[in-house]
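Section 3.1 - Work completed
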Amino acid sequence: MAHTFLLEIGLEEMPAHVVTPSIQQLVQKTKKYLKEQRISFDDIKPFSTPRRLAIQISGLADKQPDIDQEVKGPAKKIALDKDGNWSKAAQGFTRGQGVTVDDITFKELKGTEYVYVEKHIAGQSVESVLAGLKDVVTGMTFPTMMKWGSYHFEYIRPIKWLVALLDDKVIPFQILDITTDRKTRGHRFLGKTITLANATDYEDALKNEFVIADAKKRKAEIQQQIEKIAADNNWVIKLNPDLLEEVNNLVEWPTAFTGGFDEKYLAIPDEVLITSMRDHQRFFYVLDQNGKLLPHFVSVRNGNADHIQNVVAGNERVLAARLSDAMFFYEEDQKQTVEDYVERLKSVSFHDKISTMYDKMQRVAVIAENLGKKLGLDDTQIKDLVRAAHIYKFDLVTGMVGEFAELQGVMGEKYALLNGENPVVAQAIREHYMPISADGDLPESTVGAVLAIADKIDSILTFFAAGMIPSGSNDPYALRRQATGIVRIIRTNKWHFNQQMVEDAIAAETSANVAPDLDQKAQVKAVGDFLRDRIKVTLLGEKVKHDIVDAVIGGPNTDLLDNFTSAQVLSDHQNDDDFKGTIEALTRVLRIAQKADKSKVTAVDTSLFDNDSEPKLHDAVDQVAKQASELDIAAYYDALAALKSVINDYFEATMVMADDEQVKDNRLSQLSQLSDLILHLGDLNQLIVK
């Protein structure tokens, strides 16, 4: 007979951002537990609200299946004493398995006989297994934990009630002072306590008490209500997915409503209004059919429509106060110039172990100009880049950004334009923060992209030099995110960026007398490795094979774009018929070249050749070396692959480790030159070819 089981954890209200990952965790941990306990089931349906995490398991088996298990014990020589009697080891083993020594058989394993017993394990009932879900509940983890009462136990919020119902039967267990029951609770204000007769009654019973427990249905209801409001008013309301998810996890019985604000506030930039509504008040903003912001908003109440006008009026008052502050800051900020704000940055700390924010801008200006020239920007772009770099943090000391930190960069662009700055400069000021998340939008302008790289390189370099290097999951200054931003920008723009460019930037800082009082040069390799580790994470996330990733990251080529391209090229060729043969030939060169004494690697002396394969290899390698700088990675791989037969002929005819020391060193020098060319693609020894 198939069963249905309901587990509900009733809690004080959880933070909205915790609800979805928590119910996902509960589902996954339960699936793992049931699999380990050998209990079959059809499906687990999740339910979640701010006050509850619940799962409904359908199609549960009556019990675990019985199993017959063969268990290996001690070796025969240990199980029997010198007189052939059972030793204490044998007796203890059988006793532990619930059998007797009469059940022992011997079987040979790798030339040694061992004790074996067969034992029958009767499956436990589903009731017994489900009681163990207590450990699943208490074993959950959350980003923040709290204690309550006099207990040492920690959880996301205090547990208020527990439901554990198998069909119509309560499965008993207890967490702290809360014992499982069949009673759940409806909406905090509109509903009442519900006594469930059966696990299958859960969703409908809660709906009758003003709780939509299914998060997907609740979200669909919110979306439908907002879309109806938009249609009725001929509005356009963009349902931001993150905001919709957050609002959904704040309510149990959603009722959408509209409110408004004074049209005078439309004089404030849209970004300020949207931030005030969306990020601070969790309102959805409203546009007309032409995309123009309107003085209205839509919000969602946790309850029904009773007395909704009181709710509307309260929300309007809160928003009006915030917008009044925003207008004040907007008007006051414009009374000062960009130069005024830049001057104030001289007393604003970037970090107390590094420098002021003003000093950071001086460094970034030098780094940006240096990078811009290497990346091929023209004179006009360089001029705009340098100007942007000298002012790009000025908005940090404006009143608006002080109140709305989310608008840093955005207000920089707005105020720069109001102060007559070139639009290219203003755009770069906004874009230098990009991407603001691992997969966030990238700068659209070339000047903005270079400024973003320069800013992030300076941050990583100086924090590393100051000894604040991320370790484990600890990354308080988001340096990994900044490194990911650098490699994404470089990859998207197809720019070559290597370790030497970082060294050159440091040298330029020193020459311009803006370098910090830190040893940045000692951190160049560590910073390069840090950036390449972000490439590794990116490639693995794109399902590139581990061995290919290890090969391109493990090679000496520090060019980030080449690393990405090499991974793509190797992935493209990995299923070629001749891939195995090509890699085996190239890696044979790498392995033997490692035997060379680097101090003896010199130009190849062709007079020491004593068979036809040596000059053929020499000429082929020389040709690849001459073309290397002009070839892209794909063509470079083809050129190396074309050497396969020449390399194989060489090793067939040539004893590299010759008795003649001079001949041996000459041959190792020849292979070392080819090895250097191969390693530009990656450490191909890491590849697994079959």
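Second construct:
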Amino acid sequence: MKTRSHWRARLRYEFDKSMAGGAIALIGWLALISLVVIVLAGIFLAVTGIAPEGGEPVGFLEGVWESLMRTMDAGTMGGDMGWGFRMVSLVVTVIGIFVFSALIGVISSGLEDKLSELRKGRSRVLETDHTIILNWSPSIFDVINELVIANQSRRKPRIVIMADKDKVEMEDEIATKVEDLKNTRIICRSGDPTDLYDLDIVNAQTSRSIIVLSPEGEDADSRVVKSVLALVNDPKRRIEPYKIAAEIRDGRNAEVARIVGGHELQLVLADDLISRIVVHTSRQSGLSAVYSELLDFDGCEIYTLEQPELTGKPFGAAVMSYENCSLIGICDASGAVILNPPPARVFEQGDRAIIIAEDDASIRIWNGNLEIAKETIRPAAKRERQPERTLVLGWNRRGPIIASELARYVAPGSHLTIAANSAAFDRDVGNLDIDPTVMTVECRVVDTSDRTSLDALAIPSFDHVLVLGYSDDLSAQGADTRTLITLLQLRRIAERSGKRVSVVSEMIDIRNRQLAEVTRADDFVVSNKLVSLMLAQASENEFMAAIFNELLDEKGSEIYMRPVTDYVSINQQVNFFTISLAALRRGEIAIGYRRQREDDADARKLGGVTVNPLRSERITYSARDMVIVLAAD
């Protein structure tokens, strides 16, 4: 009895194991049942000699065939004659109906499970030369838009997205917020970008580049670092280095990320990038348009490529060798980026030229006549820096970086007033480490959207006003709404005082910039948009992060806007070759101009900013116009 019970348990266990095989195992069992029934029916007909009425007895094979036909089609027995044969056919047909009904159910369930699995986005991607985006954030739509523009010249471009989010939801959001994908196809997959098994789904081994976004939620930087670690240290990774661009919010995590990613990683420090651009733009209205133009694929871009024609030529002469491009620096054989090097620095074998151009195909040496009007070039004059009074309205995690960055540029004796009512505001300001002989800092807790509180700050007395969003305490839309209210109040204060107030504002969402235009602020720095542009550019150009680190570092050469009258006389038309030579004599590189004319549609575009103009074109400038230069000071 005990042995029989043991065998029953063993058989039940083996059956349960086979059922774990899913639909294939079920189909196998149904096929086995059908085979047993058909063979038994064939043997029974052959042994008993039962045959249709008026027919001859059937053999084993014929009996098997007759049983098979009745198993597959219940209507086959409709013409059977003879009760003995009918009874055998009935038994076989009933069993066949059961087996095939179960088979249809199993196949239907299996297909449904497979479709459900496909909807979950868990199948492996078999693309090659594709761009991978890991994690999901509000920046992803701008990144996709920029990659779509960059991909127009490529054949069958693909963007593969993996995030811990439902595949269908991702596809629906992209379809809603990205208007035109042109020739690019988007492939979404659900998974954990920090998991080695899930990363295998996106097939990083054959990818063109990888973008790691900072995800929404807590501990975002840790997830980014872990994703980079999983990519770089995957046992199945390719031998060739990856091209990874990753976003890090907190600069304190940058060193760990660089250790993990090594030479394969370009790091975009989101808060640091935004803070520096906010500071530069606050002191020189219009600079955000310059940075946007340099980062946007739909316009002039920065290229890093070898130019054999420049080998042996001094940098100063090389700058004057292009008519439709702007040479701004050198990337040497070791990969070090040098912006605005000394004019006597000679191009060596293996050096790459860092060039602003509309397209890499348009980069070529100019063989025409320079036609420089040397008589219009003015001598360099020493610039005296004066103490500045700056007001910051609002606060977020980028506030301390902005305050510290301001202290690097202002003249000694400057003053900074910070007014906000954020939760962490007092603590952050108290922790600022700023030399009081350079810039004193005053903290005032006020409601920055209240008119009475703003009037008490004597806003017209400040040289510069920065409006930051409360992005740490509110959603993107909520923070931008508070910013818009503050900007409207500032506009009314400026109108009533009759004085011009220089206002630069940080916006979170690009969609709110058009609404903010009615406030007549001098400039807007759109946080998410700039980070997206930088990540997209870094995924295409492996030197882009290093180039912008140099551009935004006070120790190197930076972008400035200076009066055109400092460089040339405006009593006649001059071409940009002339302005370029005037800038070179000052140790600077002219990369564009800003024309401020209300009746000129081209001048109103991008705030009148033109980057990389045609250098042979003659233009009449006014005293209000500015030259955009790359200079050490």
